[in-house]
From TrEMBL, chain A:
Residues 1-21 are annotated as: Disordered. The keyword Membrane applies. Residues 7-17 have a biased composition (Pro residues). It comes from the Bacteria. Keywords: Membrane, Transmembrane, Transmembrane helix. The keyword 4Fe-4S does not apply. The lineage of its organism: Bacteria, Bacillati, Actinomycetota, Actinomycetes, Streptosporangiales. This is Secreted protein. The chain crosses the membrane at residues 40-62, 229-249, 261-281, 472-489.
Automatic annotation (TrEMBL), chain B:
GO terms for biological process: amino acid transport. This is ABC transporter glutamine-binding protein GlnH. InterPro entries: Bact_solute-bind_prot3, Solute-binding_3/MltF_N. One of its GO terms (cellular component) is extracellular region. Coiled coil: none annotated. The keyword Signal applies. It comes from Actinomadura macrotermitis. Residues 1-20 form the signal peptide. The gene is glnH_4. Residues 34-256 form the Solute-binding protein family 3/N-terminal domain.
Length: 497, 271
């Protein structure tokens, strides 16, 4: 037996307070260890110290899991998603302005002049609200605060320019189609301000706060996993010490089993196994909430915002013939960001090859084995086949294809010189109209995002539920185990009185 | 003593395992004391290696600024020539830590490289002789002779992507293009405006400010270095906020009459 030569561990739990100098001296010399009660007391002290260590390690690990779930599920996570709304609201403001300018005096075209204005104001309020969220999220970070302020200042300037463009547009009373030059000159300033300054800053804000969530996720999850390893280690030490104590008492006192120590051993084992399982489950809940929930919701909200912005580029393409080439190019760039297809070696990447390759790749799509990249490519690689998300993705892709087919027809009409026909198609809200098809696509995309949202909420709820009992459990269990140890050893010590 | 020694060994093993778990971003550029940066050696204004072996240009200056924000001073920076074809390989093998080399972000490349930035969005534009008045946008290149640099895709963006029937004239380098432009053997050079600005600085030519593509110049990082990518993005945000970006853009490109954007570009997102 090695216990007889255990080193003194007086630091964690000093023996009985020294009442007399003589006792202290005896203690310091270590002579007390040579007596049997001394050895028993030292072993008990060691056991309790190890137990306390296990309790502390477990409490810290559970605390980390709790903080992780809190940050991801209740604080930063939802707030980051809310700042994503900033980009969407801003880009949709400019989309509404483009539509108002394009339809001119034909107020009934598309969703109508008044409805566009109403949406414009609604988006402006939403943008202001999202900016407040972003400012809260930025906290004391001066650079991020600066970024939010820049967005708000820019928004003021944008509103002024957009208002001026719409006023000049009303005054001109032009028919549907390109407005007069003075309107376009002001609108170009507005849309350039939006594209070059406001939208990038809004986008970067969301990315940056998303980065904070990622870092906190990585560090909390790693802390939970290493906490789990520490719980196992300390539990093994406690169990080993209990076993040794059991053997020592069995030999020294000729008794088979010490019931107190045996119960303590059993309880420690149960606690360790339960803690291991709980911490593993917590790490998994965090992973699911982050990867399948948060990441997907965020990237789909970006895909949605970029899609709306691309749809508005169609209006701008019809609105501003001098810049039609540029708007066609930005449309293509945005389409590629949402769903990238590779037209193949040696073929140019332009809208013509995009439509053709898109058709082929989307029709031949099976979940988990997509040939395309971009936001939908990431999504396609991630979703499990034959799930709710997979169905929603399939529907979204089909709707996206319909949107691109309308784009192709619209550009063909415009290319042939039938601008009126192109505008009718683009502003069509009935069957076969581009707005109708886009709305279908938007709904499919939102419901796809909802499936991830539900997954996120479920993972967070599971995380919360799992942790509910664990606030006092480590301490309570440790106290019970300690009491069992003391109860087990006490009668043996009493034999020496 | 045996038990305690065994316990100590176990403790040590587990604690080192714990540390390994905690630094998930081990090997990230944020932890490096010195950095090797891949740049171009033959692009005036962006990355050009001088006869003294020193590199200079916008890419070099931006890289130096970003490295500084990552805590690496110029004295611990090394630049290495990284041609277009070798950029992914150089990052994967660890030959370079970061790439600042007119490295356009594309969805395809994103499968192999993690991109910080873009630090600038360049646009394909057109360079013509000073006295040229007939070319105002890409469609005016119809029937005109444009430079087709070997290995570059830029001219195809005019003739194939845009289907403008320009006449490509094969030329080995952009430097040679410039000679042919001034001597009247070609009518226009079309490629990224920042590259054109570097060429235009030699005189005799002007940029037609009618950009028709977006080229997102990203910072290449080893695939998966998200912590590094986020740190690079924060550095770039600062570079624009504190006015350094505007100063650098003016320093390298304003002379050529290029309209530069001095507001922070929309980042790609780290993945």
């Amino acid at each position: 037996m090695t216990t007889t030569r255990q080193p003194p561990v007086p630091a964690a739990r000093p023996g009985p307070p020294a009442r007399r100098r003589g006792r202290l001296r005896t203690f310091a010399r270590g002579r007390w260890l040579k007596t049997i009660p001394g050895r028993i007391r030292a072993s008990v002290a060691l056991l309790l110290a190890l137990l306390a260590l296990m309790g502390i390690v477990l409490t810290v690990a559970v605390g980390n899991a709790r903080q992780g779930v809190q940050t991801m599920g209740h604080d930063a996570g939802p707030q980051v998603v809310a700042t994503g709304a900033l980009y969407f609201a801003l880009s949709d403001m400019d989309a509404q302005v483009a539509d108002v300018l394009l339809i001119g005096r034909d107020h009934g075209l598309g969703i109508g002049h008044d409805e566009s204005l109403r949406r414009y104001e609604q988006r402006r309020d939403a943008a202001a609200q999202a900016a407040v969220q972003a400012a809260q999220l930025a906290g004391q970070d001066a650079k991020r605060q600066q970024n939010v302020r820049d967005v708000l200042n820019g928004l003021g300037r944008y509103e002024q320019l957009a208002g001026e463009a719409m006023l000049l547009n009303d005054q001109s009373g032009h028919a549907a189609g390109p407005p007069p030059g003075n309107v376009l000159r002001v609108y170009r300033q507005a849309t350039d301000l939006m594209k070059l300054e406001l939208l990038p800053k809004a986008y970067n804000l969301t990315l940056d706060s998303g980065a904070t969530v990622r870092q906190s996720y990585e560090s909390k999850r790693a802390a939970v996993l290493s906490g789990r390893a520490w719980v196992v280690l300390t539990a093994v030490l406690v169990l080993a010490a209990l076993a040794v104590a059991q053997l020592y008492l069995a030999r020294g006192f000729r008794r088979t089993v010490n019931p107190g120590l045996a119960l303590a051993t059993l309880l420690t084992l149960v606690l360790a196994v339960a803690a291991f399982a709980q911490l593993s489950a917590q790490a998994e809940h965090l992973r699911v909430a982050k990867r399948d929930g948060f990441d997907s919701v965020l990237s789909l909200s970006r895909a949605r915002a970029i899609s709306h912005s691309a749809f508005a580029d169609e209006s701008r393409y019809l609105l501003d013939p001098d810049r039609a080439d540029t708007y066609e190019q930005t449309y293509l760039d945005k389409a590629l960001a949402v769903l990238y297809v590779d037209p193949g070696q040696g073929k140019p990447v332009n809208l013509e090859t995009y439509y053709a390759t898109l058709d082929r790749d989307v029709r031949g799509f099976t979940p988990g084995r997509a040939r395309f990249l971009g936001f939908f490519g990431d999504e396609a690689h991630q979703v499990r086949p034959a799930g709710a998300a997979s169905d929603a993705l399939g529907q979204t892709l089909r709707a996206y294809l319909a949107v691109q087919q309308n784009d192709r027809r619209m550009r063909e009409l415009a290319g042939r010189g039938d601008r009126a026909g192109a505008i009718r198609l683009r502003m069509g809200t009935g069957p076969g109209g581009a707005i109708r098809a886009f709305d279908d696509y938007d709904r499919a995309l939102v419901s796809l995002s909802e499936t991830h949202r539900r997954g996120f909420d479920a993972a967070i709820a599971a995380g919360d539920g799992g942790l509910r009992g664990w606030k006092w459990l480590p301490l309570g269990a440790a106290l019970v185990i300690a009491a069992l140890i003391l109860a087990g050893v006490r009668p043996r010590l009493a034999e020496f009185r | 003593m045996r038990l305690s020694r065994a316990a100590a060994a176990l403790l040590l093993a587990l604690s080192s395992a714990g540390c390994a778990l905690e630094s998930a971003d081990a090997g990230s550029v944020v932890h490096k004391r010195s950095l090797v940066i891949g740049v171009k050696a033959d692009q005036p204004g962006l990355g050009l290696k001088g006869p003294d072996g020193r590199y200079q240009g916008f890419d070099v200056d931006v890289a130096t600024y970003v490295a500084g924000r990552l805590g690496v001073p110029p004295s611990r920076l090394r630049f290495r020539t990284t041609p277009s074809s070798a950029r992914e390989q150089a990052l994967q093998s660890g030959a370079v830590d970061l790439v600042f080399a007119t490295y356009s972000i594309t969805a395809k490349r994103k499968t192999q490289v993690t991109y910080g930035g873009p630090y600038y969005v360049a646009h394909q534009a057109i360079l013509v002789r000073d006295d040229e008045t007939g070319i105002r946008n890409v469609r005016d290149l119809k029937g005109r002779r444009i430079c087709a640099v070997t290995g570059s895709n830029s001219w195809k963006r005019v003739t194939e992507e845009r289907k403008v029937a320009a006449v490509p004239v094969d030329t080995p380098t952009y430097g040679a293009c410039m000679d042919r432009l001034t001597s009247g053997q070609v009518d226009a050079i079309s490629t990224d405006d920042l590259i054109l600005a570097g060429l235009a600085a030699r005189g005799g030519a002007k940029i037609v400010n009618a950009p028709f593509t977006d080229e997102k110049y990203g910072v290449g990082l080893r695939k998966g270095d998200l912590a590094g990518c986020e740190a690079v993005n924060r550095a770039l945000t600062e570079m624009y906020q504190d006015g350094t970006a505007a100063a650098l853009l003016n320093k390298w490109f304003a002379k050529a009459g290029l309209e530069v954007t001095t507001s922070v570009p929309q980042f790609e997102g780290c993945s």
